[in-house]
Structure formats: C-alpha cells, structure tokens
# Entry
Amino acid sequence: MNTIIGWVAQPLGMLLSFLYGFFDNYGIAIIVFTFIVKACLFPLYADQIKHSARMADVQPKMQALQKKYANDKEMLNIKMMELYKEEKFNPMRGCLPMLIQMPIIFGLFALLRNPTHFIESNSMLMAVHEAFLWMPDLSQPDPWVLPILAGIATFISFSQTQQQQPSMGDNSMGSMMKMMRYFFPIMIVWMGRSFPSGLTIYWFIGSVIQIFQTMGLNRWKKKLAASKENK
# Structure
C-alpha cells in the first residue's frame, strides 16, 4: 500500500510544485491544486451519484421481490438477477468509483501531510512553512477556525450524499448512517486540529467544491426526471 501511495503522491507532488512555482504562494497553490484534482475526479463522482439515483428507482422493485420470496432465498437470487438484467443495473458499479478514488485520496493525504517527502524541489522546503491568511505556518495545525469550517462543509456535503442514497428506514443501518452524519464532521474537526493547515485547506476547499458539484448534479437529475414525465 505504501508503494501505491508513493506512486500516486509523487506525480501529485510534481503538480503542486509546478503550481507553487507559478503562483509563488503555497496556500493559493493548494487551492488551485484542489480544484484540479476535484475536476479530474468529477466523472467518477458523477457516475457514483447517477448510480445512487438508479438504485433509488430500482429499490421498490427489489423490495417487492424480497417480500414475495422472503422464504425462498434461491428463487429470490434468481429473480434479483433477472431484475438487474431487465433494468440494466449493476449493483457493484457503485463501488467502482470509490475503489478507484481510494489510492488517490490516500496519496493526496500523504502528500499534503508530508509534502517534502514526495517533492524534491528545494523551494518547497520553505514553502510549506509559509503564512496564509490568518495562519502563520501552513505546516502547523490551525487550532479552531479552519477545522470548524472543514467540519461544517463536511456536514453539508455528507448530508447531500445521504439524500442521494435510497432510504434505509429505521433499521440499524439507517440509524448508523444518521449517526455518521454528525459523527464524521466532528471527527474532521478533531483531526483538523492536529493535521497541517495545508491538508485541512485541501479538505475544506474540496468539500465546498463537492457541495456545488452535487447541487449541479441534483439540478441535472430534476431536469432529466421532468423530461421523462413530459414524454
């Protein structure tokens, strides 16, 4: 895993170093770097959202089959496969974008947590210690302001993502997801108080970008649904 993370982090480090050379400001370089990374990952995120929407459409039929064949697991599996084929729906497809993103996410965290380990440029040795806005040193944690902003952005983004998922009702899984809606942002605040400010900037800006991406995808879904109803 460490080797894979290094393979991902090194080219990302070259990009960050290039951006720093262009802007001559480490904070701005991280922000632009975040926009570029999010733009590259957007097709995967969009595919994941579209898959969640399809899951919501297929779920009522799945629940009907589960109720009808509750006492016949073998027939239920057969009918489920027939449903997937009829609806052209692959339940495993929703996992693929996340599996692809995971090495990239780990590589980004490794890079921004210890940028000088993956960037050979001597100019970056001092760049990571630059001040930005109210933060005197981007290699050091910001005690409250940035972690709280990151937590708020994470809460909004996580809430949007939950709304895309099919309803799980009041079962244990649904209760756990509701709890995660509040626990995960709190965890981000806590982690942000110990991570370098540069890494927390990336998380905050990335979460804000994802909020707007999700809003755009939601508008697209509403227009698509409206066009289907008009046909």
User: Anything to note?
Assistant: The radius of gyration is 21 Å. The mean pLDDT is 82. The longest helix spans residues 26-68. The chain has nine helices and no strands.
